[in-house]
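Hey, I was hoping to borrow your eyes for a little while. For a while now I've been wondering how a particular protein folds. The fold is given in discrete form, as structure tokens running alongside the sequence. Could you read through the record and tell me how the tokens relate to the sequence? Take your time with it, there's no hurry, and the full record follows here:
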Amino acid sequence: MIQGKPIVINSGCRCEAHNKAVKGSPKSQHLLGNAVDIRIPEGYAIEWLASLASNIPAFGRTGGIGQYPKKGFLHLDVRGNGPSIWTL
């Protein structure tokens, strides 16, 4: 487990202007307050954290899990019409 490591939120709910500035999707779940991007703690694999998230129904069965290994963050959302899983 991630003992002693903080979960750092890079992005949560976004306004349209900020979403555009960070080149977010025009249909981003962040605009609805349904998404979070978390920084991957040093020493942990993004694939492992995505696997843990996939066991949580709100993410793995009906939400979204996006892996961004080059940027060092994991996107999680509760879209409700998933699953939607991707790696960029």
Remarks:
- The longest strand covers residues 35-39.
